Amino acid sequence: MKKLMMIACMMLLSTAMFAEKGDTWIGGGLSYGIHSDYKNFGIGVKGQYEILDNFRADAQVDHFFLHEGVQISDVNVNLEYAFPVSDAINVYPLAGLALVGHSGNSFGFLNSLKVGFNVGAGAELPVNDKWKIFLDAKYQIVEDWGRFIPTIGVLVAL
């Protein structure tokens, strides 16, 4: 299962390498997964590729650390459409797919892997032409593991 996760991560992140300058962003963030039975912090990497004006594809790989007996890794592919609210802030709805691996041990071995869906929204604040701060919140719809995940992070233009 680790090989499957690694292959999925490489495929998702490699698509950003073929974009024109300014259309691709890469960065990372901190997340907090909230489920009724457990909560855990995560760290991840994120890449965006602007397909059309304001319409973009987003790939994110996260690892949520072992807490309350649960450790999770996930790969997400979302579509977003940015709406400018002001000169400084964009908001966006997001929807996409999630590949979620679940583990109950500290060694990182995945016990099982499930496919689900993401639905949520976010906002971004451009710092300058090369940097932006993002905050998004999504709900992962995954059998037995559905949960709410807010994320804050930074993206840099390539």
Tell me what you see in this structure.
The protein has one helix at residues 2-14, and strands spanning 24-34, 39-52, 55-67, 70-81, 83-84, 90-103, 112-126, 131-141, 147-157. It has 158 residues and is mostly beta strands. The radius of gyration is 15 Å and the shape is elongated.
What key attributes describe this structure?
158 residues, 8-stranded antiparallel barrel
Percentage of residues in DSSP E strands: over 45%
Topology order in helix (H) and strand (E) letters: HEEEEEEEEE
Over the alpha carbons, how many angstroms does the gyration radius reach? 15 Å
Q: How does the major sheet shape up?
A: 8 strands, antiparallel, barrel
Gap between N and C termini: 31 Å
Shape: elongated
Outline the low-pLDDT stretches.
12-22
**Total DSSP helices:** 1
Number of strands: 9
Q: Give the structural class.
A: mainly beta
Biggest sheet strand line-up: 1-2-3-4-6-7-8-9
Average of pLDDT? 86
Amount of helix: under 10%
SSE layout and pairing:
Elements: H1 2-14, E1 24-34, E2 39-52, E3 55-67, E4 70-81, E5 83-84, E6 90-103, E7 112-126, E8 131-141, E9 147-157
Antiparallel strand pairs: 1-2, 1-9, 2-3, 3-4, 4-6, 5-6, 6-7, 7-8, 8-9
